[in-house]
Amino acid sequence: MEKENRTVVTEFILIGLTQSYDIQLLVFVLSLIFYIIILPGNILIILTIRSDPGLSAPLYFFLGNLAFLDASYSFIVTPRMLVDIFSEKKVISYRSCITQLFFLHFLGGGEGLLLVVMAFDRYIAICRPLHYSTVMSPRACYVMLLALWFGGFVHSIIQVVLILRLPFCGPNHVDNFFCDVPQVIKLACTDTFAVELLMVFNSGLLTLLCFLGLLTSYAVILCHVHRSASEGKNKAISTCTTHVIIIFLMFGPAIFIYTRPFTALSVDKVVSFFHTVIFPLMNPVIYTLRNQEVKTSMKKLVIRHIVC
Q: Would strands 91-93 and 11-14 be described as parallel, antiparallel, or unpaired?
């Protein structure tokens, strides 16, 4: 009975990205262009990797999963944001808000762990090539894949459980265009200091440690490549450089959002927009544009379907 009396908020009102109609229109056009062009590109990457036996190496297996994660991630925020831009009242139910928050961190956490696995794959391939086929066997790859999905689930469910325990009795205006931890926590009608610290530890510290660990691992790999005189030196450098670009695109905004106290800054919404809408769609495309094998296989797949 006490819980019923305290948790009276049944819906939240999203304030949105901006109140300027011109900027909203610009955001709508840019987001729609990215969504229409790049989302099918991610799906094409998945189909290409699955249909070409020559792309069966662990690197491509994980790249296909990255494209799947990013395509799924883009469905959480972008479609609703595009609809809400022209809605007078941007209302989201309490359950829908919690659901959106869960999948946002479930897939985002899984992707962060996937980048760690991909770094491990490159380390073994470049620094321990004789052990590669043993360490990165098909069974090991599937175990790693299940582990990162489970890790993303645990990361997300912790956030959701902490939020579900908070009472919400008004106000109910979320200062963003989607539901995320920092904005939702601020609406709780109780002291949230301890919960905020737990959230920073769960999201912020984990993100920062993964980021620093990834940079360190790629620094070790690049040093090893630089000292070697193998034929695939340029290809290894190109692949690692691409991975580092993706790491900065993903972890940079996440560190900015989740590793500091939950106080609103003027640039928060812009950072969130790129973090949740633009970068997830671009990640696999960046990988593909710098990978000759995938590009060649993709062209063959497209030509084959056009001819048929």
A: antiparallel
Mean of all residue pLDDT scores within the chain = 86
DSSP code for 57: S
Cα angle 47, 50, 55 (rounded to 5 degrees) comes to 115
End-to-end CA distance of the chain: 65
Q: Report CA torsion sign: 64, 67, 72, 73.
A: positive
CB contact at 8 A, 89 and 12:
no
Beta-carbon contacts of 298 under 8 Å, excluding residues fewer than 6 positions away, are 44, 45, 48, 288
Tell me what percent of the residues of the chain surpass a pLDDT of 70.
Answer: 94
Kindly tell me the burial class for residue 263, based on how many C-beta atoms sit within 10 Å of its own C-beta (0-12, 13-18, 19 or more): exposed
b/e 41-60 (16+ beta carbons within 10 angstroms → b): bbebbbbbbeebeebebbbb
pTM for the full predicted model: 0.89
